[in-house]
Each structure stands twice: as structure tokens, then as C-alpha cells.
Write a structure and sequence with these properties.
InterPro entries: Cu-oxidase_2nd (IPR001117), Cu-oxidase_C (IPR011706), Cu-oxidase_fam (IPR045087), Cu_oxidase_Cu_BS (IPR002355), Cupredoxin (IPR008972)
CATH superfamily of the largest domain: Cupredoxins -  blue copper proteins
Subcellular location: Secreted
Keywords: Copper, Metal-binding, Repeat, Secreted
GO molecular function: copper ion binding; oxidoreductase activity
CATH architecture of the largest domain: Sandwich
Shape: globular
CATH topology of the largest domain: Immunoglobulin-like
Protein name: Laccase
Oligomer: single chain
């Protein structure tokens, strides 16, 4: 099988040459701006050994699910019959009524070094459906940390602070006012938010947040604190909120601010990220700069503390810097504020980030946030 470009000329794709019986370590990163990807190699399995540069208990699977910002290290044994095998990366997206966008499959080839040039054996893997979100949910749920007596930090048993962060879309009025026609109108600008506040650096802001943090320049006057929870509680994962309509219009109004959250240095912080159906039902790969997070649990639907806290893995949760919050679901993480500075927490989908789904955790500087 040949790949042809737009001019009809044969074009080689990525080829991984392997020798029979050898084991290969693949370093995989999703550097895409948008879309989780399913990765498979026909006739082969992966043994996942690391996620986000932290060892995990070896996990054997034929499918890797990886979101933007995530990294995976996987072993592949060249133990299939001599031949050529397609390596396929399939983007996934939320099913309708979410907006459907063009998503393109990319392919490479695993080729055994002893294969004949005229071999007709080009195996293609059977891929998940592009609307399949459950395979990703179970893949991430199967990750656990590989514990080392000396190098594995213990999971803190209690949290000093707890946040419930609702990840959503909303709108602001295009004219800068507080009153405008919501929904599918030309009077709004769609924004992304955390607890109904969309991150925004005003044009008049001349001082970067890091400099404000270090020199205390205007910190109290220009920053807004990320709240412990959303201003309004609703059925976050209601699919009727995905399309424009009277139901979502009531929840649509959003504010904008230079959003930060101040912690005490050394404190243990629990965060529950809750995805919503507001104008979209996407997953959200949440990335925290400067820290690893213990992923204690995740689930589908609305987080219920009475039910879900009891499922927390406090023994060997995976440590990650990018945590995938499932489609119309939630993820609970715990981290220690042990790396002083002004950091950034954001969704790794580029359009969510540019629309304001971010905030700046900060602490240190003589513990002024005690």
C-alpha cells in the first residue's frame, strides 16, 4: 500500500523499523491543540510503564488513550509475524449534539527489518469509534503508581483546603455591558470559565502576574480570587444544556477577571474538577504547572461527595501533571503546595485555554497567604 500526496506522487509516512524479538520503548506525547487520540499498532500490544514522567504499574493494553498535554511511555515487543503493521492515531470527539468538527486520522508503519519489499502483508488495526469516550475513561482509570520505598512520596491522608471547580462555557456581552441577548445571537462572545469566571488580562495590565507575585505590585487591586465552588449549583452534566436554548441561557452569563488562587506554602490541596454540558460535553485535560497531582478518583455524571470520596485511592494513585476530566464527568486530585511561585492551571485544549479556562495558583514569598 502506498500513500499518495495531492499530486499523485508516492509519499512515505513515519516508519518504525523493528527487529523480531526486540523490545522498544516508545515516548508518546499528544501535542495536538485539540482532541484526545486513540493509538493502536495492528498485531501488537503496549505495556504502559510511565505517564507524565511518573512510573505506573505496568499495564498491558492494545489501545493507548492520550489527551493534549499528556505523555506516555510504553514498551512494545516485536513479536508478531514478519510483516508491516499500521500504527494509527484516531482523534475522538464528544458525540452529537456536540458540534462536530473535522478530525483527521494519522498513520505510521511498524516494519520488520526482514520483511520483503514486495510483501503484501500490511495489517490495519481495528480502531474504536471516534465518538467512543468510555475506552478513554477505563484506560485512565486503570493507571496506578508504581511504588518505590525511597522515591515515592506518600499520599497525604488529609487536605488543608478543598476546591470544587466547575469547568464550563458561557458568554459575555459583546458591547461590554451586563445586558444582552444570550443564546445563539450576535450580541455575545463565547468564553470558557472556571467557577463562572473567565481568565482575562485587561489591556491596561502592564505588570505580569509573576512580577506582581514577587514584588507585590498591585496584587490586591487587580486580581480576583478563584472561589471554592461555583456561584450556582445545577445539574452540571445535563445534556439539554449542550445546544443553545432557554435552559442554558439562564446559566450563560459569565464574568471575566485576572483569576488567581492563593495557597499557604506546604498546604495540601484537594480539587474536584467537574465537567459540564454547558454548550459542549467535552472532556477537559487539566494541567497544573510546577506540580504533580495525585489522581484520587474519577467518575461519570455529577460528583457526589457522600458517595464518591469513599472511592478515593490513597494507596497508589497515579501522579500526573495533566489530568483528564471525563466527558460529562469529574476527576478528584490532591497536590502539595511545595514549589513556591506564581503558576498556571488550565485546560490543555487550546481553544478552552484561549477562551479563558485557566487560573493562577500562587504561594510563597514569606507565606503572605497564611
Amino acid at each position: 500500500m502506498e500513500w499518495l500526496n495531492s499530486k499523485g506522487v508516492a509519499e512515505d509516512g513515519y516508519v518504525l523499523d523493528v527487529e523480531p524479538g526486540k523490545t522498544y520503548l516508545l515516548h508518546i506525547i499528544n501535542a495536538a491543540l485539540f482532541s484526545e487520540y486513540y493509538i493502536k499498532i495492528a498485531g501488537h500490544k503496549f505495556t504502559l510503564v510511565s505517564a507524565d514522567a511518573n512510573y505506573v504499574n505496568p499495564y498491558t493494553t492494545d489501545t493507548i488513550a492520550i489527551a493534549p498535554g499528556e505523555t506516555m511511555d510504553a514498551l512494545v515487543i516485536a513479536d508478531a509475524p514478519i510483516g508491516r503493521y499500521y500504527m494509527v492515531a484516531l482523534p475522538s470527539q464528544a458525540p452529537p449534539p456536540d458540534t462536530q468538527t473535522p478530525e483527521y486520522v494519522t498513520r505510521g508503519m511498524v516494519q520488520y527489518s526482514t520483511v520483503l519489499l514486495n510483501s503484501s502483508r500490511d495489517d490495519v488495526p481495528e480502531m474504536p469509534d471516534n465518538h467512543d469516550t468510555i475506552t478513554s475513561f477505563h484506560f485512565h482509570g486503570n493507571l496506578t503508581s508504581l511504588l518505590h520505598r525511597q522515591n515515592s512520596p506518600p499520599v497525604p491522608k488529609e487536605a488543608d483546603e478543598s476546591l470544587f471547580i466547575v469547568l464550563s462555557l458561557g458568554s459575555i456581552c459583546r458591547n461590554g455591558g451586563h445586558s444582552c441577548k444570550r443564546g445563539d445571537s450576535g450580541e455575545i462572545i463565547l468564553v470558557a470559565n472556571m467557577n463562572n469566571v473567565s481568565f482575562h488580562l485587561p489591556p491596561e495590565t502592564a505588570t505580569p502576574i509573576l512580577e506582581e507575585h514577587y514584588y507585590h505590585n498591585g496584587m490586591d487591586n487587580t486580581l480576583q480570587e478563584l472561589a471554592n465552588g461555583p456561584p450556582v449549583t445545577f445539574n452540571f452534566t445535563d445534556r439539554d444544556l449542550i445546544p443553545f436554548g432557554p435552559k442554558e441561557m439562564q446559566l450563560e452569563p459569565t464574568s471575566r477577571a485576572k483569576l488567581v488562587r492563593r495557597f499557604k506554602q506546604g498546604s495540601t490541596v484537594d480539587v474536584v474538577f467537574q465537567s459540564t454540558g454547558m454548550l459542549q460535553g467535552d472532556s477537559n485535560p487539566m494541567h497544573l504547572h510546577g506540580h504533580d497531582m495525585f489522581v484520587l478518583a474519577h467518575g461519570l455524571g455529577n460528583f457526589n461527595p457522600t458517595r464518591d470520596v469513599a472511592t478515593y485511592n490513597l494507596v497508589n494513585p497515579p501522579r500526573k501533571n495533566t489530568v483528564l476530566v471525563p466527558n460529562l464527568g469529574w476527576a478528584a486530585v490532591r497536590f502539595v503546595a511545595d514549589n513556591p511561585g506564581a503558576w498556571f492551571m488550565h485546560c490543555h485544549y487550546e481553544f478552552h485555554l484561549s477562551m479563558g479556562m485557566s487560573a493562577g495558583p500562587e504561594y510563597g514569598q514569606n507565606d503572605q497567604y497564611q
